[in-house]
TrEMBL record:
SUPFAM superfamilies: Acyl-CoA N-acyltransferases (Nat). The keyword Membrane does not apply. This is Ribosomal-protein-alanine N-acetyltransferase. It comes from Leucobacter aridicollis. It holds the Pfam family Acetyltransf_3. GO terms for molecular function: protein-N-terminal-alanine acetyltransferase activity. Residues 18-189 form the N-acetyltransferase domain. Keywords: Acyltransferase, Transferase. It is an enzyme of class 2 (transferase). Its EC number is 2.3.1.267.
Amino acid sequence: MFGADGGELPSSLSAGRVGIRLIRRRDARALEALLRDNREWLTPWEATHPGGAGPVPGTVSLKPSIKRMLEQHREGRGVPFVITYDGMVVGQLSASDISRGALWSASIGYWIDGGHAGRNITPTAVALAVDYLFATVGLHRVEMCIRPENAASLRIPEKLGFRYEGRRLRYIHIDGAWRDHDSFAVTREEVRGSMLSRLDEPA
């Protein structure tokens, strides 16, 4: 499997007990189970369709979605990872909307099993992904957009030293309504060493 720049994507990237690797179609069952088991935990932060259409996550097969993500990866438009802890899949992280031309940027989104939250797993996974996007894919900028009510997720850009760029009003349809999001970003020039080195203690 190949990265967005045509370079080979490592089978996995890891720091301590945390890893990220390219999603596989056979990950569908594990991810579906996590989505079902985490309905209450994830629903307030999940994207929804403005028209009310679309299945409840975890109630349908993810294989078609994974197939689309892998197609986007082959086209250089995204890098879909799973997050692992001690080798077990505990969440998902995607670098999407990869732009070239004059921009060379991507947007990161993620979710994690509620039972594994608060252990520094997600910040470690994000740091691994950003380091990969800068060092291997060759991007210049990575951003993440987070609802201002999501206190747990807001700690991630804070820990990693992302810049606050402002509030995007009614930006994404989440949990049944258009929600504001705070935008955070980092460029390659701002990272001295690696993003992972910004964490005091990777999980």
